[in-house]
Design a protein that fits this description.
By secondary structure, the protein is an alpha/beta fold. It is built from six helices and 13 strands. The strands form three sheets. The chain has a seven-stranded mixed sheet with strand order 3-2-1-4-5-13-10. Strands 6-7-8-9 form a four-stranded antiparallel sheet, covered by helices on one side. The protein has a two-stranded antiparallel sheet with strand order 11-12. The structure holds S-adenosylmethionine (SAM).
Length: 253
């Protein structure tokens, strides 16, 4: 197992995200754009779940993008997201990667580009975190059991946070253990220097980029029917949010 395997297991959950994005789109989206795609794990799940689905995954890291091999339904583009091309129904930016846009000018310019890639009725979605702990430093551990009996300790560390500039440094560490014995360690597996955009800052930038409507969603659906279709409503009352929260911010029109 390497850092990318551990990241996919501990950080990502495409199996939950694909239905959520379909519900946020609201009709029957076929084409996914995954910007800052990393290993394109979301795109892989999208084409698995949607029989006539396609995906366009964009990342600067050719090695990460190539990881899951070729699939005719996934176009993998090694490029800066600001140059990424191809029209899509849902354009997703995950795991706080919108924070790679460090200035408001960069953010609005990227969002304008993102909007230009949407089919009519399309939606742009990114995530961010906020609330009382968002500018605190420290770390949390989470444990994931592997099918072979090993256990992964995943550590999310916020090493640096400056509420005056909005800049944060977030670091991911992994440790693989078996029966209490450490088998492998990946300290500082990923280090991110991000601007942590607040929800209203993102909504304002989306509006300035030309989007007609912005909405905020929790990362969990409101309801699921017998066929596994999920339903989700935007958050309207701040009381619905935890003291520290992760939300999806969507823009359309
Ligand atoms: C936090 S990872 C996100 C992986 C995945 N999207 C997810 O949801 O977990 C950030 C990725 O963004 C890529 N990246 C950073 N800046 C970029 C840029 N300007 N254009 C394209 N990719 C970029 C990095 O190579 C890295 O793979």
């Amino acid at each position: 197992m390497d850092c990318h395997d551990l990241y996919e297991r501990c950080v990502q959950s495409p199996v939950h995200l694909v239905p959520l994005l379909r519900a946020i789109h609201g009709r029957e989206p076929r084409v996914l754009g995954e910007d800052f795609a990393g290993t394109a794990a979301l795109s892989c799940r999208w084409v698995q779940d949607i029989p006539d689905g396609r995906a366009i995954a964009v990342d600067l890291d050719a090695g990460a993008l190539a990881r899951h091999g070729r699939d005719d339904r996934i176009e993998r583009i090694v490029a800066d997201v600001r140059a990424g091309a191809g029209e899509v129904d849902v354009l997703f930016v995950g795991n706080f990667s919108i924070g790679y846009m460090h200035t408001r000018g960069e953010l609005v310019s990227y969002l304008r580009h993102a909007r230009s890639r949407l089919h009519p009725g399309g939606v742009f979605v990114c995530d961010t975190y906020g609330g009382e702990s968002s500018f605190l430093t420290g770390h949390v551990h989470r444990y994931h059991n592997l099918p072979d009996g090993r256990r992964v300790r995943y550590t999310w560390e916020q090493r640096f946070a400056n509420p005056l500039t909005g800049m944060v440094t977030d670091v991911l560490h992994f440790r693989v253990e078996k029966g209490g014995v450490i088998e492998d360690e990946f300290p500082e597996a990923f280090v991110y220097e991000w601007r942590l955009w607040a929800v209203p800052e993102l909504c304002d930038a989306m509006t300035d980029a030309g989007f007609a409507r912005t909405e905020v969603f929790q990362k969990l659906p409101d309801a699921e029917d017998d066929e596994g279709n999920i339903y989700i409503e935007p958050v309207r009352d701040p009381e619905e949010l935890e003291d520290s929260f992760i939300v999806l911010v969507a823009a359309r029109g």
